[in-house]
Amino acid sequence: MNPTELITLREFITVVPLCVLFFVSLIPLLIKPFLGGREPNPISVLVWNFLAILAAAGCTGALFGHSYQKTFAFSNAIVLDGTSVWMSYLVYIVTAVGIMLAYDHVATRGRQFTEFCFLMVSSACGMLVLIMSNDLIVTFIGIETMSLCLYILVAMSREQVLSKEAAFKYFVLGSFASAIFLYGIALVYGTVGSTYLPDVATQGVKLISTNRVFLVGAILLITGFAFKVSIFPFHTWTPDVYQGASTPVTAFMSTAVKAASFVAFLRFFTSEAFVAAPHLLTVMTWLAVLTMTVGNVAAILQNNFKRMLAYSSVAHSGYALVGLITAGFGTNYNAAATSLLFYLFSYSLMTLGTFALVAVFERSENTSLEINDLRGVGRKYPWLAMSMTVLMLSLAGIPPTLGFFGKFFVFSSAIEQDMYWLAFWGMINSVVSVYYYLRPIVVMYMSEGEAETLQIGLMTRGTVIVTGLLIVILGILSSPFFRMVQNSVMNQF
Amino acid sequence: MPINPEAWKVGLDHYLYLSSLLFIFGMLGVLMRRNVIVILMCIELMLNAVNISFIAFSRYAESTNGQVMVFFVMTIAAAEAAVGLALAVTVFKKFKEVNIRFFEHLKG
What we know:
Structural class of chain B: mainly alpha
CATH topology of chain B: Helix Hairpins
Order of helices and strands of chain B: HHH
Number of helices of chain A: 20
Mean pLDDT of chain B: 88
Oligomer: heterodimer
CATH architecture of chain B: Orthogonal Bundle
Largest sheet of chain B: none
Radius of gyration of chain B: 19 Å
Distance between the termini of chain B: 66 Å
Helix content of chain B: over 70%
Helix content of chain A: over 70%
């Protein structure tokens, strides 16, 4: 394409949801100076941000709702297909829920709620860029936009010690990972001559076995992604940051960030280049196995509820990595990619619900929830306890919940591609994980105690119950849902 | 004995060695230093080391793409420095020193 060509209207339309989201979310920030720097009414902030998200979701729906035609824009740097549309919806949902949780939560309510919401929505904009990017440098910009907002979000808590420590750790490791990722881009650019992903794919097939520089570049890129989605040797920041951040931010971070990074990882990894590198398959397989095992074993040892969930999220990265490997090295891309997207959806829903529940039972911003603090919940708050049970069973992967079907599709596509080893370890790990997911349930129902909820609003409680219900309903309706996702992914080619 | 003038030429590989060396220095700095400001400087060093690679590749491939990317990277590096310094200020306010040895609350 001629680089001097002006941006056409058709190209601009592909990023309209992003622009709408960003500019509407700016409005509360612009209102603030007119009130003399006083915080506007939090409800109005909430309404403006919801409006932004709804408008953006409406744009996505109206423009690309039914035809999952693959469209390119901006010299092919942005791609719009079924995957991007589905994942955009996921980002909208998670951001909306994140803002609701933040409105209710004691650590984030307060003087800087306007800025908080704006940063959350900006981070979502970064994720949208990341999801749609078809060029490594755009991916990098998406990752950075997303992460820079997150570093501040983690630090913006009323709690003073842990959140600052977590923010700084996250910042240092995140920037470190970004620099590694960028070096990978530089080496790939040097060997391929372009950062456009299809070019990398076509030329990489030859280069990966002949050119060491390209191989190192690809490995650095994979390392950068592995940091972002917390895969085994690079997962150590996860528990610290998830524990230190305020619960609404953790909910946002553990779902949307992970899903968006996984989609970018998928776009990079499914280029045919890696099929020619059998060693890489072995390494990735072991990384997946170790990620699952380390996450699950470490989760068993935790007493802090958020830390346990953080390790469980590491384990879930491992399961998602199984889907990614199947999509990258297998022959049936569609089934594997669909199962990965479906898995990310189910994981995000379950995790959002669970963190909302953590937010309900945190007494103040300075105490963190231990598993034993849930004693007596079963008797006192039967609805919450029931939702919690569903969420935990779903995370453990027990039918007929959504979590079961997520794992089922991922492992069955791995088996179809003759990757028995991965599926085997996935199953073993699912069994191990049941132990620590059942522990909170046992504590809730079987031990006497005085669990107390904060004076927390309806929205957080609502989130817990709605996600609980959704998990059962979507679990039962999982095959039509799966087919819907599959149709959208199929039309990519 | 006169030295062959070709031997004095600086080629692509020299730039790449320089860039990887600076990158590794930055990496070691992030991993080993305990002062927050030094860590921030080392992260900047890593990003700028990558810039050298981009420029060198761009020069020798005779395409301007790499130089455009450097602008993006510089912008991102500036944003990162702003966020990092802001975090350093909060750390300083809390612990009265910019050192990561106080980070001992999150473990396990």
